[in-house]
């Protein structure tokens, strides 16, 4: 009889169940981790609430393959090695990148694995069950990294979200003369402020509607923080830039209003980076992009090639993590944990088995 474990299994929108699930076994080239912690991503919450990008409008365009186990911000200890695995040993503590690439498509062959056309993000496919469980299986194509000795559980769980933020900052190509705006100061946004500050731009402006997150933005390196509920963001940014606007606007909130806000706040020839994920389609005035300001629109997907640098930065103290995990819950209390992500004082919420 197959051995069982406890897991949070997603069956449908608003239908997650904490229940027994078959414990994974390691096949050739595979690794089994005993999960030690897993962060809750905004994508996990949107999946629970039936986000159309995840559940689609029909079975034909649905991304998620239910029932499956959510969670891609996990780390854990190696407890089983499949045949042929020689790079790791029992007891190693690993974090795996959130995407399982195919290793065969054009992008994988060029090393651009995060854009793999047949990839799966942990937690949304049955062959890629995630970390909301006692154990998780790492496919032979997974990209794994050792968690340095001395890392706290919070630091280990934060590697994945910070790596996503680092990729967005890298895509922005920040220069010393730039005025940089980061909209959305959750755990990833605050980390982006931190990482952007390492490039020593002229000014960093953080935007959020929650006061605790504005304070976190200041602690992580923002020169100025603005609340769109209390002021006109476009006007304030122009006041700070002699009427020109910002050079870079990184959208990390997933708020449709932030898109228009960003396009209007950018100077001529500015750079807009889309990192946040929206629950629905967003409308924007494309004349502002083209005939108006000649903007450069940049997408940012996952965390390509940033894990090693993020781990190194956290270890060296250059990348801050204190305060980014605001709540920790046991896996069985997943519903309370999901609700906590919406709390006024929430940053990143973590589950532990």
The helicity comes to: 25-40%
Low-confidence region ranges: none
Number of helices: 11
Distance between the termini: 23 Å
Query: If you compute it from the alpha carbons, what radius of gyration comes out, rounded to the nearest whole angstrom?
Result: 20 Å
Order of helices and strands: EEEHHEEEEHEEEHEHEHEHEHEHEHEHE
> What fraction of residues sit in β-strands?
25-35%
Reported for the largest beta sheet, the result is: 7 strands, mixed
Overall pLDDT score? 96
The quaternary state of the protein chains shown equals single chain
Globular, elongated, flat, extended or rod-shaped: what is the shape? globular
Structural class: alpha/beta
What's the total count of β strands?
Answer: 18
Write up what this structure looks like.
Helix 4 crosses helix 5. This protein has 11 helices and 18 strands. The chain is 27% helix and 27% strand. By secondary structure, it is an alpha/beta fold. Strands 3, 5, 6, 9, 10, 17 and 18 form a 7-stranded mixed β-sheet that branches. It has a 6-stranded parallel β-sheet with strand order 13-12-11-14-15-16, sandwiched between helices.
What does the secondary structure layout of this molecule look like, with pairings?
Layout: E1 4-12, E2 15-22, E3 31-39, H1 42-48, H2 52-55, E4 68-69, E5 73-81, E6 93-96, E7 99-100, H3 106-109, E8 120-121, E9 135-138, E10 144-146, H4 153-172, E11 179-183, H5 187-197, E12 203-207, H6 211-219, E13 224-226, H7 233-240, E14 246-251, H8 256-265, E15 266-274, H9 286-292, E16 296-299, H10 307-316, E17 325-330, H11 334-340, E18 348-352
Parallel strand pairs: 11-12, 11-14, 12-13, 14-15, 15-16, 17-18
Antiparallel strand pairs: 1-2, 1-4, 3-5, 3-9, 3-18, 5-6, 6-10, 7-8
